[in-house]
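Researcher: Next entry in the queue.
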Amino acid sequence: MPQAPALTSIESGRWGWLAGAVRREWVTILLLAAWTAFLFGWRLQEPGKYIYDEVYHAYTGSLMVQNDPRVYEWWESAPQQPIEGVQYEWTHPPLGKLIIGGSIWLFGNNSLGWRSANALFGLISILLLYTFARVLFRDRWLATLAAAIGTVEGLLFAESRIGTNDIFQLAFLLAAYTSFTLFLRRPARQGVGWLFVTGLFLGLGVATKWPSMYSIGLLTAVALLRAVWPERWTRRFLRRIESKPSPLPALEGGAVSAAPDAAAPEAGALMVESNGTEPVAVELAAPGGIAAASADPEGWSVLGRIGYVASALVALIVLPTALYIGSYLQMFLQKHQIAPSYNEVGPFTLGPLSIGPKTLTDSGWWSMFVGEQWQMWHYHTTLNSPHPYYSLWWQWLLDIRPVFYYVDRTDDYVANTYNLGNPLLYWGFPIAIVLGAFLLWKRRDLGLALLLAGFAANWLPWAKSPRGLFFYHFLPSVPFLVLLVAYCLVWLWRQPNARWRKVATIYTAVIFVSFAFFYTQLSAWPVPSWYADIHYWLPSWE
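Model: Structure for this entry, 542 residues:
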């Protein structure tokens, strides 16, 4: 069987500096962070006024810093002077607006102040995407490629530069999935600590936006499944599938090598990696992707399983619920007086469950909390008034209907802020999903299983959403697809046929060129009208 050339070949010639950077992982991470900070932070203050939903989120964040109780009072309307169009934002949990408020407190109530936290969390999201890929597949090339593609993904870029709450949710979810991957690497009982870390980030996610509950459902189901799946089956299954040759380049001796027919090392074997200055021998906890770190005792009693289930439920249900309620601490400490005409909640109907209607008889903290949840539920289940930027859930995958956040058009120039996803990346998503599913079936790769499940859990529930939908609701699904694309590209690079390696190289270059072409439309950069007009490839983009 012909062998693909080892990636160590890049150590010579013009690409030697790249191999050196990869050998020193901290250099790779530092360069990635510097590039992301520059890209997300340059001209962050432009335009110097509220754009799109900043009139809700950033405005409310600025009042939270002042401890204004009206931001939690659903019966109040914001004054339209001196800024027209602003309104108190209570339709989402408060954490995202509190973070924006903290940024305003640090940098002032200006465009830089109310967007700086988003740029910071965008940077954190890129570094977490790198970490998630690194933990999931133990491959620096894949992690670096995935994070680099993430920096030129248009939707993620746009959400990192606008003072709304979506990028905060994304960062918390990426941290949760990374922690959960570390849980999956261990026998169930030995990984409970990582479940609590996962629950912490899930709680922060749901305290920012409700859709984080989709991930709570997925990760809780997987964690509970491990209570009934015998650990010896898990170990046998993992040994069998992870002893197969990896489709990805492995890191050995601090350099990148590729041996497509080499079996993964057994748990406990020694492997040499570089710490950036000299080789270091490390003991492998497991033979590859997601695997048990050590043998779990065979005698897992019924009481032991019950204890594990109880711990998992506390970590993934009780802890996030407590954090969600705790995010309203500012509201609880304030004095409120519910207006009599706004004190009825319900009826709340969810399938066979029906509660209310009920009248709130006082203005205590519990009544305020219940009333706030009802108002949020009512808003998101009845929001269907016409909007020019509504889109359908399936259109997101094909980048069909993005949202204009800002438009400044004159006779001489156009300046747009547009959350268009990188189109030539998005149009590769369906191919990556199909190829990823094929490789999952062929290789039984649990890393791919988690990527596909995470994507589906964050995307498919929107198919039944009763409210009008916007493209930015797709953001939590994007990192899983970016990772799938990166996985497939590395897999193509590892093929013995040079034609597939050329395809992967050309497509990677096309992704970055596409972002460069659309950059002005994503960043409010003034350009001539004719140049702006050539970016509307589809009628639905106008």
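Model: The radius of gyration is 25 Å.
Researcher: Noted, moving on.
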